[in-house]
Design goal:
By secondary structure, the chain is mostly helical. The protein is built from 19 helices and 8 strands. A two-stranded antiparallel ribbon has the order 1-2. Strands 3-6 form a two-stranded antiparallel ribbon.
């Protein structure tokens, strides 16, 4: 599709607009999830030990949390409106189900986190230390609940449950109270939640350790005796804290990602076949490091170019067996056409399934999957390098370690964004992916699905979408510049030792831009 035809295509522009705003917003989300927990743990350390380093760390990273939270709220509001405007046909079809978790997220989780965050900001020295500590833990609970409900809504799009199709209205409707509970216990929700939260820990650990390593090496190298004392007493404990978070988050991300991928092999086989570059059903399928070109539509077509393959690994990732059969795109397409043509509701709505390509865009899915994995490795390298240089109570002074620490900070942000892109592009051409088990078994739940092209609004023109997409992109770019500038400013400002006046007057501990 060329640039002009894309600019005149409402579906393409609608997808680009939602994709751009979502990726912008999701750059901020994992840091909020992870940093709220880490700040709560730091403050707990201070509360339980009385060590000044943890008070300083709480205040320092608390400022960065507030900046990130504010920008996250600003960038997230737009998405809510797009459902009712650009994607009004989608909202009309699934509003009864999709709206429920989003409403709960706004009314319960968001108000919980924002209310107690306000109390935490203004409560320094004004409420007891124990109650003040409780405020940040309630913020953490609210942030995680918010993520859970949003993922519940998204996971329903990936795997519909608890829903019935009303032929009179042509809409999907929640199947009573039982359907709502099915929405909550949807396995895709919990796999996604575990993976998002642990990857947020990995990202936040890299953020904390990256900043602390840079400051530690700089202070030790340039600050003389006082700098060495600052490096040892302040930045070394914070560095070790960040490295522990990286290790826990990294192991959790790898484990949850493995199990989530195996679940997706069953629920969205086309996504995983495209991610692995498997063209036909294959026993002992290889993992391909790099691939150029799509799988053909038939076994006689031109095969993609593969660079470095590891036998059996793709099958193992899918089923824990190096010799198991892995589904390929050509065979998946044929099976999807056969199943959908046997579903009367699909045929009535969309016609012959053979006219559609049910394999997602292969190169974006293939490469976003590898970017997600590959860029997370920078965090692992930071952890290994920093732990080695810190062994036997050493304080590193290497300028290269400090530079790499800063360089590593954006890498898990890129990995997390690539993971979200992989999840959403891999669902195409569906905006509501059919429940595969229900479709195979002739269950009425198999009637619930929607092609992306039919979810777009019929009353919003391509010109209007293109205009708003351009404006939102420029606005979000400006907000991104503000975010980077504020983060850089307060990171460079660093940690200042707690003054005697602050120790005597607790109200002086308040975050200084909180008013």
């Amino acid at each position: 599709m060329d640039v002009l035809s894309t600019a005149l295509d409402t579906v393409a522009i609608g997808r680009w607009q939602f994709g751009i705003t979502t990726v912008y917003h999701f750059l901020l989300v994992p840091l909020t999830i992870g940093l709220s927990l880490c700040v709560a743990i730091m403050q707990t350390f201070w509360y339980s030990t009385g060590k000044d380093v943890w008070l300083q760390a709480t205040r320092f990273f608390g400022k960065l949390l507030l900046i990130n939270f504010a920008l996250g709220v600003a960038t997230g509001i737009v998405q809510e409106f797009q459902f009712g405007m650009n994607w009004s046909e989608y909202s009309r079809y699934v509003g009864d189900i999709f709206g429920a978790p989003l409403a709960i997220e706004a009314l319960l989780a968001f108000f919980l986190e924002s209310t107690f965050l306000g109390l935490w900001i203004f409560g320094w020295g004004r409420i007891s230390k124990g109650v003040h500590l409780l405020m940040i833990w309630l913020v953490t609970a609210g942030v995680n609940l918010s993520a859970l409900w949003i993922l519940a809504a998204n996971s329903w799009m990936q795997h519909p449950v608890g829903t019935i199709f009303n032929p009179e209205t042509g809409r999907a409707e929640l199947d009573g109270v039982g359907g709502f509970f099915q929405l909550i216990i949807n396995p895709v929700t919990w796999f996604a939640f575990g993976h998002v939260v642990t990857s947020a820990w990995l990202l936040t650990g890299t953020f904390i350790a990256g900043i602390a390593v840079w400051w530690m090496t700089r202070a030790a190298r340039l600050g003389g005796e006082a700098g060495m004392k600052e490096a040892r007493e302040i930045w070394r404990p914070i560095t070790l804290f960040g490295l522990v978070v990286i290790i826990i988050g990294g192991l959790g991300t790898a484990g949850t990602g493995h199990f989530q991928g195996q679940e997706m092999v069953k629920l969205q086989p086309a996504k995983m076949a495209a991610a692995e570059g498997i063209c036909v059903d294959t026993e002992g399928a290889s993992f391909t490091i790099a691939m150029f070109g799509d799988c053909p539509t038939s076994v006689d077509g031109v095969q993609p170019t593969r660079i470095i393959t590891v036998p059996g690994v793709a099958s193992f990732m899918a089923s824990n067996s190096f010799t198991a059969e892995a589904e390929g795109t050509i065979d998946i397409q044929a099976r999807m056409v056969e199943m959908l043509n046997s579903n009367e509701v699909f045929v009535e709505r969309y016609g012959d399934a053979a006219q559609y390509d049910f394999i997602p865009p292969q190169m974006p899915v293939f490469w976003s999957f590898r970017i997600m994995i590959g860029f997370a490795a920078f965090s692992a390298l930071l952890a290994l390098a920093a732990l080695w240089t810190l062994r036997k109570d050493r304080i590193p002074t290497s300028v290269w370690l400090g530079r790499y620490a800063i360089f590593s900070i954006p890498m898990p942000f890129i990995a997390a964004s690539a993971g979200w892109i992989f999840t959403e592009i891999g669902r195409q051409p569906w905006v509501v992916y059919p429940n595969m088990a229900a479709l195979q078994n002739g269950d009425p739940l198999g009637n619930i699905s929607q092609l992306t092209a039919t979810g777009i609004s019929t009353s919003v023109s391509a010109g209007q979408m293109l205009t708003t997409m351009t404006l939102f992109t420029l606005l979000y770019l400006a907000l991104g510049v503000v975010w980077v500038w504020l983060m850089r400013r307060f990171i460079i400002e660093g940690i200042h030792p707690t003054s005697e006046e602050s120790k005597k007057d607790p109200s002086a501990q308040a975050l200084h831009f909180g008013y």
